[in-house]
Design a protein that fits this description.
By secondary structure, the chain is of the alpha/beta class. It has one domain. It contains six helices and four strands, in the order βαβαααβαβα. It has a four-stranded parallel sheet with strand order 2-1-3-4, with helices on both faces. The radius of gyration is 16 Å and the shape is globular.
Length: 150
């Protein structure tokens, strides 16, 4: 079982697909959920700890907008745990404010530089592209375990 970082990291469909093949999806939803349920937070409703700003500085300089550093501090445990990555390019959910966009670009750069297995696929727009999309991800997940495609 591998820990798979999913980008865009709020994709419930990819999260379900990763689980179906016996892997653990690493998603923002899980990271946020853990923070909401964690009773050790010092400053609700902000939901940060004193160490969080330092985690963000690990990836981005102090001059970078705080939203980028904040997002990176949230994603840090997921990035560190990632053993493989699925990146979906041109997805509709990969847009947002400038902080979101800069975070997305930084995140993809960091994940690509980790030297772990990675698959990059285009967001499907037709039924045929969707079948190929799922097939390629399935093949990637199966090969991670050293298994054969069926």
């Amino acid at each position: 079982m591998a820990k798979i970082f999913i980008y865009p990291n709020n994709s419930l469909i990819l999260s379900d697909l990763v689980k179906r093949f016996g892997h653990e999806p690493l998603t923002t939803m899980n990271a946020v959920g853990k923070r909401v349920r964690d009773s050790g937070l010092d400053s609700p409703p902000i939901n940060i700890t004193a160490e969080d700003p330092y985690k963000g500085l690990k990836y981005a300089a102090i001059e970078v907008p705080s939203g980028v550093r904040g997002r990176m501090s949230l994603l840090d445990p997921l990035i560190e745990a990632a053993e493989a990555v699925i990146i979906v390019e041109d997805s509709f959910v990969a847009f947002g404010c400038m902080g979101c966009n800069r975070t997305n670009e930084l995140l993809k750069l960091i994940l690509r530089s980790k030297k772990i297995p990675i698959i990059e696929v285009k967001y499907p727009k037709t039924d045929e592209e969707t079948r190929e999309f799922v097939y390629n991800i399935r093949k990637f997940l199966t090969e991670l375990e050293g298994g054969d495609e069926q």
